[in-house]
Design a protein that fits this description.
There is one protein chain. The chain has 101 residues and is of the alpha+beta class. The protein is 23% helix and 14% strand. The chain has two helices and four strands, in the order βββαβα.
Length: 101
């Protein structure tokens, strides 16, 4: 039988970990109306951080028109909620691709 590996099965200290989370939270008038999706990802993020790794989170918000920037689809709105739940400062990178140049 196939064994599915858990986060704790890996040595993560000093590693840079990228995780994809479903942070497509519902919004009304620019405010988050449900924190369920954010709350659901916190245990995984904390586990990785507690193992001494750096975490980069990938997600999306809404359904933007391809190739057209619209601030209402920015994940920047969830930073405060992540910081409160993780208990650490969270930085936001507006241009993910610049990280790899």
């Amino acid at each position: 039988m196939l064994q599915i590996k858990q986060i704790s099965d890996f040595e993560l200290e000093n590693k840079n970990i990228i995780i994809r989370e479903d942070l497509n939270v519902p919004l009304k008038n620019g405010k988050i109306t449900s924190f369920e999706r954010i709350d659901a990802c916190i245990p995984s993020i904390k586990k990785i951080l507690n193992q001494g790794a750096n975490v980069s989170i990938l997600s999306h918000l809404g359904r933007p028109i391809e190739g057209i920037y619209d601030k209402k689809y920015s994940l920047e709105i969830i930073i405060k909620a992540l910081e409160e739940r993780v208990g650490e400062e969270v930085s936001f990178n507006k241009n993910f691709f610049k990280i790899f140049k």
